[in-house]
Amino acid sequence: MVHAYSVCYLVQEFEEDGTYQLTLAAENEAELVVARSEEQTCTVTIAVSIGLKPAEPQQRSVMHVSIEENDGGPFPKSIITVPGEEHELLFSLTGTGADAPPEGLFVVEELTGEISVTGSIDREEHPTFEIVCSRFKGDNTLWGEAVTVIITVIDKNDNSPEIFETTFRVELSEAATAGTAVVTVSASDKDDPETPNAQIRYKLLTEMSMFSLEETSGEITVSQSTLDREDTAEYTLEVEARDCNGHSNGLFAQATVHITIADVNDNAPTFTQEEIQVTVNKGSRDITVATIAVEDRDEKLTENWRAVYKISGDTEEIFSISTDPNTNEGVLRLAKEIYTDMELQVLVENEVPLVAGVEETSVAGRTCRVLVSMLGEVGRIQFVPPVTKVHIQETVLAGQILAVLSAQDTENNSNENMRYAIHEDEANLLDIDAATGKLSARADLKRDSPFLQNDKYTALVTATLEGEEFGTATGTVLIVVRDSEDSDSGQRPIVLHTTACVRDENSSVSIDIAATDAQGAFVGSPPFEFFVDSQDQGWVITQMDGSRAKLSVESGTLPCGDYFIPVMGVDAAGSELGLSVQLTVCRCEDGPAIVGVLPVQDGKTGLCLSSGGLAAILCSIIAAPLLGEPGSVNVAAKTAAL
């Protein structure tokens, strides 16, 4: 049986007392299948009294009930009963969850007033319901006031905390003090905020004494004023957000915080040597006297690391000093001619001041004493170049040729009858052939030798013209020792095919190598340094200037045939340029010895030209650039046959 109800409304006020009768008729919206003869009517009598005060409204009774969120059933499940069954009443429900969406979630047993729930409820969608239960007598008139039933859904911990950002990247100054805020990890929970299910506590999962975390706010702060980028440049923190006030049975989420320590100038540069001694010829100028190394623990290639050098004790400004931008070394040069021994003090500081609170390095560490001694007047004899830089591996063997030094008589541009000698060799590591200038290793030279400074060893050599007394030249040999494991850089080498034509097997051959392309532009950042793989003992290389070197055979002569010489170049930025020279030596049938530089093809001999003196043809090759990436590099070479 279905009950329907109607409501009559007063549309205007009564003007006088009286009795009114209304007749109401009811019919179905749909046509009846079986017609009924009786008309369904109802008579309503209304007594009106103008002076009668309106009745006080009766307060609707309210019932409360709680049900669990996400109840697993079985359904329907009884939750509460509205009283009135003993009066043989009929019950009906209205409201959200009854006859309004989500409709049908709550139902009432028409004869008993028992209210049941028909399915599980998500509290996060519907935390409460308010439904109205009306009671009717048999004649379809209301019995008493309707009952309001308020249903509260009890929360379950069915939602984990949600962290708004799970990965944080933060930069923190190295000078940050204790209490400095770093970042706040924030989470929310959809569960009932009035219950522990949504009450979150934060915790650092990473044991880290440098940082602390406030458990209720999630704020991370610095706990110690001892951050040091030079010891630890980055920290990674794992943070947990757990509900139920952090209890072990609570649900949780995690976030990762990456903290990068930003460098400040908290380390002063210090000299690796407190005193150095150099010798120069009287009257010398425009030459490099020494390179002075410093150590600075701050971040490289930044203003906190870059050194600024000053000279004290040089009132006439005979010397100048600049900073090598790649090595941070001080390059001490003669700006004017010098004629007397001198003592200098070189001071060093950074481009920016040290941060407050950092103890200054002792004066001894920030000062280097430079003793400059005279060797004699600058005369006709001069080394070319004045400083010969040699790269070797620490596996170099005693007796191995390291370089061929050359001094010239500047009056006639000749190096004939020159006699060479070791002038200063503190570690007693070197030998030199007095007649040829070939510099060789007397003993093994290791990178951990106490005589090396920053993997470098410096020696002095002299040259005099045999039978003459007009002067001695002094040259510097700078040896750079490379780790043997660095020999295989994994780079794709550039192969230069070169052909030399000689008159006979007593002719000597040398090759000039230049780090330029076909248009004369540098490949890399000058100056360049060249060296031969130390495992190939048949060849030596001599630096000529900042972009060229001379490659020559140790014995001075070469039989006809094909030769493969591994060469390496290093530019100012420290990038390596692999260059392998493939040389073919052939015999000229007639005429003077002429040189051709050509790609070798099918094993054919090289080109012989007939013209006087020496000639050279540049050979441009296509090869991979540094690091083996696609591209092209042109390397120029010149081969001389004498």
From TrEMBL:
<dbReference type="GO" id="GO:0005737">
    <property type="term" value="C:cytoplasm"/>
</dbReference>
<dbReference type="GO" id="GO:0030027">
    <property type="term" value="C:lamellipodium"/>
</dbReference>
<keyword id="KW-1133">Transmembrane helix</keyword>
<keyword id="KW-0325">Glycoprotein</keyword>
<keyword id="KW-0130">Cell adhesion</keyword>
<dbReference type="InterPro" id="IPR002126">
    <property type="entry name" value="Cadherin-like_dom"/>
</dbReference>
<keyword id="KW-0965">Cell junction</keyword>
<dbReference type="GO" id="GO:0045177">
    <property type="term" value="C:apical part of cell"/>
</dbReference>
<dbReference type="GO" id="GO:0016339">
    <property type="term" value="P:calcium-dependent cell-cell adhesion via plasma membrane cell adhesion molecules"/>
</dbReference>
<keyword id="KW-1003">Cell membrane</keyword>
<dbReference type="GO" id="GO:0000902">
    <property type="term" value="P:cell morphogenesis"/>
</dbReference>
<dbReference type="GO" id="GO:0009986">
    <property type="term" value="C:cell surface"/>
</dbReference>
<dbReference type="GO" id="GO:0099634">
    <property type="term" value="C:postsynaptic specialization membrane"/>
</dbReference>
<dbReference type="GO" id="GO:0016342">
    <property type="term" value="C:catenin complex"/>
</dbReference>
<dbReference type="GO" id="GO:0044331">
    <property type="term" value="P:cell-cell adhesion mediated by cadherin"/>
</dbReference>
<keyword id="KW-0106">Calcium</keyword>
<feature type="domain" description="Cadherin">
    <location>
        <begin position="384"/>
        <end position="495"/>
    </location>
</feature>
<protein>
    <submittedName>
        <fullName>Cadherin-2A-like isoform X3</fullName>
    </submittedName>
</protein>
<dbReference type="Pfam" id="PF00028">
    <property type="entry name" value="Cadherin"/>
</dbReference>
<dbReference type="InterPro" id="IPR015919">
    <property type="entry name" value="Cadherin-like_sf"/>
</dbReference>
<dbReference type="GO" id="GO:0030057">
    <property type="term" value="C:desmosome"/>
</dbReference>
<dbReference type="GO" id="GO:0043005">
    <property type="term" value="C:neuron projection"/>
</dbReference>
<keyword id="KW-0479">Metal-binding</keyword>
<keyword id="KW-0812">Transmembrane</keyword>
<dbReference type="GO" id="GO:0045296">
    <property type="term" value="F:cadherin binding"/>
</dbReference>
<dbReference type="GO" id="GO:0016477">
    <property type="term" value="P:cell migration"/>
</dbReference>
<keyword id="KW-0677">Repeat</keyword>
<feature type="domain" description="Cadherin">
    <location>
        <begin position="62"/>
        <end position="163"/>
    </location>
</feature>
<dbReference type="GO" id="GO:0005509">
    <property type="term" value="F:calcium ion binding"/>
</dbReference>
<dbReference type="GO" id="GO:0014069">
    <property type="term" value="C:postsynaptic density"/>
</dbReference>
<dbReference type="InterPro" id="IPR020894">
    <property type="entry name" value="Cadherin_CS"/>
</dbReference>
<dbReference type="GO" id="GO:0005912">
    <property type="term" value="C:adherens junction"/>
</dbReference>
<dbReference type="GO" id="GO:0007156">
    <property type="term" value="P:homophilic cell adhesion via plasma membrane adhesion molecules"/>
</dbReference>
<dbReference type="GO" id="GO:0007416">
    <property type="term" value="P:synapse assembly"/>
</dbReference>
<keyword id="KW-0472">Membrane</keyword>
<dbReference type="GO" id="GO:0007043">
    <property type="term" value="P:cell-cell junction assembly"/>
</dbReference>
<dbReference type="GO" id="GO:0008013">
    <property type="term" value="F:beta-catenin binding"/>
</dbReference>
<dbReference type="GO" id="GO:0034332">
    <property type="term" value="P:adherens junction organization"/>
</dbReference>
<dbReference type="GO" id="GO:0048787">
    <property type="term" value="C:presynaptic active zone membrane"/>
</dbReference>
<dbReference type="GO" id="GO:0014704">
    <property type="term" value="C:intercalated disc"/>
</dbReference>
<feature type="domain" description="Cadherin">
    <location>
        <begin position="164"/>
        <end position="271"/>
    </location>
</feature>
<dbReference type="GO" id="GO:0042383">
    <property type="term" value="C:sarcolemma"/>
</dbReference>
